[in-house]
Give the backbone structure.
Amino acid sequence: MSARKHRPYRRALRVWIGLMLLLAATTGSAWLPLGAWNSVVNLVIAAAKVLLVAVFFMHLRDAGGLVRLVACVALFMLVLLFSLAASDYLNRHIDPAPWQPPRQGSSSFGEPGQLSLNVPQTVEHGVEVIPEPAALADFDCA
Amino acid sequence: MAASYLEEGYSLGSWLTTSDHKRIALLYFAAITAFFFIGGAAATIIRLELATAPDELVSADTYNRLFTAHGVIMVWLFLIPSIPSALGNFLMPMMIGARDLAFPRLNLASWYLYVGGGLMIITALVLGGVDTGWTFYTPYSTLFSNSHVVLTLAGVFVVGFSSILTGLNFIVTVHTMRAPGLTWFRLPLFVWANYATSLILVLATPVLAMTLVLLAIERIFQVGIFDPALGGDPLLFQHLFWFYSHPAVYIMVLPAMGVASEIIPCFARRRIFGYRFMAYAILGIAVIGFLVWGHHMFVSGQAVYASLAFSLLSFLVAIPSAIKVFNWTATLYKGSITLSAPMLYALGFVGLFTIGGVTGLYLASLALDVHLTDTYFVVAHFHYIMVGGSVMAYLGGVHFWWPKISGRMYPEMWGRAAAVLIFFGFNLTFFPQYLVGAQGMPRRYHAYPEEFELLNALSSAGASILAVGYLLPLVYLAWSLFYGARAERNPWQASGLEWQTASPPPKDNFDSEPLAVREPYDYWLTGDEARP
Amino acid sequence: MSAARPLDTLAAPEQRAQAGTLGMWVFLATELMFFGPLFFGYWYGRLQFPDAFAAASRETDVVLGAANTALLLTSSALMAAAVEAAQLGARRIAVRLLGATAALGVVFLVVKGVEYHHEWQAGLFPGDASVLVTGGRLFFLLYFAMTGVHALHLVIGITVVAAFAVAGAGAKPRWGPGQLGLVGLYWHFVDALWIFLFPLLYLLGRSG
């Protein structure tokens, strides 16, 4: 194995301190009103923590290229899954079918009610009320 | 001369507790054969029902359970394990000059998981089966089906882990146990193919596992993840299911391509044309195969831009497949061709895979797919690839390596006869299905309009021929175990390390004889340089 | 190419170690893919029900969640130290560190159990008695599924670590530092998963 620090467990201690600080940062920043950036900050900090664990605790620092590649490949596959599925989920507002109810509000990313038919719009006594589908005659089926 | 692996213990226990990859391969071979004929029995009843237009044989509900059983058993219990676990387990260590796989006991665990999961699926079948189709689409499978869905899901889940562990074993083996001097580009293409298949096995199957868990949770607890009335999305299931199930079809076909790449050079006495391109094409198919799953969802309500992306990517995946077909053909050019049984299967594979692949392009075209989806055109397409392709290649591989595995020669004339019968029966069964599908006959229907009856009757007639063709090897291969001529070390004069050891091999694969690591497919060598 | 004796390519300890490490990393890749659909469902829910998800996330106990995160991060550090101790030959220290690692894992599970109990009593479990609808229901389905599958993996990890601690405490060495390293990889993976689960499940919508 590669050279260790002269005093054992030093590295583990330093990484632990780093992880604790990052935990404090992510928890603390959650209460700051940053809007969508809260999630970004949290994910970046989480990625940093995982990198510390992977590189130092899981010895990726000393590992060969093959092991590093294997360490990354599953994440890459999930990115592929999310990306191509995004081409569906982010574009459902385009060319809706004639029987879909008319859209409320703009069709931007993250708007509720953009992604599936019959999304309950109101709640009465804790029970969803699904809106009646509009009659076909109400639409201009061009 | 060391005893062969078959002679190292004759008790059942010595087989069930073995860690010898060759014995485990035979354990798989036995189970796979049994499941094949069970799935085939379901197909027989299906074709009997479809021979006539009205529903005379079985009810609609029974029919649904039959095609579901056929799909589940054939996909997970036969096709996915067939070449990797029966042939791959036997041959991979030998082809790289190793004594066994990297994790032999994990290999045995894989077999037990496979058999355990298979028995769970058969139990569900015996209890009445499942009627959702092998694709378990929601909301039918979660809200409405009154069949043994959860038990079947559990069985598939368990079989999935068998696949994952086999893939893991193969990957580590190929990376760490190649003989000295055996660089990646000296490996047989069968090894490349099984390696790429293993990549798919380990990355795609876990997604299926969790998806089936979510399906079971939805069915049991009705929480709403796939139910639009509760805010869920049925396409969530379909995205996740097909993210596995499309690469799964490459799990089924890549090893078959590897088998073809071993047989064709041998019986054309020519090295494979374009070895590096063949290896890159195998990897290309594996990678691009992960990017095309949405072509199963063109008419599901998926966004049109997603459909466009998936359609384009599906066209792209045809390119490496086509390169392979061109290269097999070029390998034959100016070759000295022997139409042995394995060669007949391999050539049949190339032709039928090409037809199946081309019809896949029709289905990848968005506008055509709107007409063809859920018709018999799709059924014909995937049967051309999976049966005309994978099963033919599997049988070709079984015949090619039979002397090595069993130490016996099968009767060659019967081998050729069965191959021809299967080819003829297969085409008679499935080509009419393209025609009725294009004319609009839907799939998964137990009765259909009169106008489709003639072609369906032809298809069923073909199926009866196909059935005979499949039963023949069962008979003569078993016969050969007792009465077949003893095989020599290298009866086909083939290249590859596995042919340098005895037929059947000793337990540790190779005696203390030194092994020569050569260029792959060195069929251009003649005279003293050639293998004896 | 001259003659080769290829038979014992896994006889050398370095090659066995290499095979073991590669095998464990491939296994961890499959585990990450196994969790993938849960993250996918979460992402779908975030897109579809951003307000409901944020509101539901506020119902989780962030104090216990953060405490649990700290526990698991510490256990990871202890595990890394245990592997280092084993490599240095300090077997007794390694065994003690392994015991501490397993103990922290158990405390994590206890805290998780307390959280589950509170959430059950508050009617947050997405069954028939749930007070939640739609988005919130989906959030808590994913919460219980993700933390539940994580907890299952943690149980396996604790069992293996405890077994190694017990086996290492005996007179004869039953495992080497290489094998312990593989256990460590698994433990760190379980920790890394939680590192992502914590902000996704506990910290959404806190500033709202």
